Amino acid sequence: MSYHGKLIAAHEELEQAGVWKSNFNPPLFRILRKLGVESPPPYYRSFQSNFLTSFVFFTPVWGVLMYFFGWQASGKSLTETTITVLVGGLLYGLTTALYYSWKFKQCKLTRWDEL
């Protein structure tokens, strides 16, 4: 089955499982698909893949925003800021990956390769 066919099947399966559309088709993945990246929905990706994606996209954005809108005025050093941002990004990535793994098992979804 083609990527597009698998994507449609996955979206239908997620809808039937009661998962909100905004959760199984988040903006980041819609943007990636428009750029030509054929990535499965987050529920069908591996734990490591979800962790890395969440970490890589969340950490720099959150870090820059927190630095300019809070930490810079408080006098936090760049080292302290960097450590805080990395720990926050790691926790966010871990939480996100755990959530998708847990929901995949809870909803008894079909593996991406088997769609």
UniProtKB/TrEMBL annotation:
The chain crosses the membrane at residues 51-71, 83-102. Keywords: Membrane, Transmembrane, Transmembrane helix. InterPro entries: DUF6404. Pfam families: DUF6404. It comes from the Bacteria. This is Uncharacterized protein. It comes from Photobacterium proteolyticum.
